[in-house]
Amino acid sequence: MDNSLVFSKITKNTDVVFALMVVSIIVMFIIPLPTMLLDMLLAANITFAMVIILVSIYTTEPLDLSVFPSLLLFATLFRLGLNISTTRLILGQGYAGEIIMSFGDFVVGGNYVVGLIIFLIIVVIQFVVITKGAERVAEVAARFTLDAMPGKQMSIDADLNAGVITSIA
Fold it and tell me: Which residues of 105-126 are buried (b: 16+ CB within 10 A; e: fewer)?
């Protein structure tokens, strides 16, 4: 089969490709990955993160990146799968590939006290970011709900006045 034909069939069914990618991430939660594959996925994750940052920085119109919330959800799920896989390998084998080893050597530099302090800082920052992010999402959802209420109320009043609906007393 021609490669361009296969590519055109795949791009027509992007929802299926997305669903398969999500299922493969969930499989990462369950099945231990080989260190070579984990290194490739970590490199892909770093590249993917840089592409997301660059695209979001250089996007001039908000509608040009309307897929951003879904993309961010997918990236977060992918990173969670990588975190679980690397944690499993570190705790099980003591080694999770060259990327993790190189990054650990670079950040910690052989000093475990520095590593512990950096780890605590990252945990606190992540906790604050996630908490504030969830709070902001809830505020925006509540605002959209409140903004939609007057229109719904006017629609019900108009239907009642037109006799489309009746009040039950």
Answer: eeebeeeeeeeeeeeeeeeeee
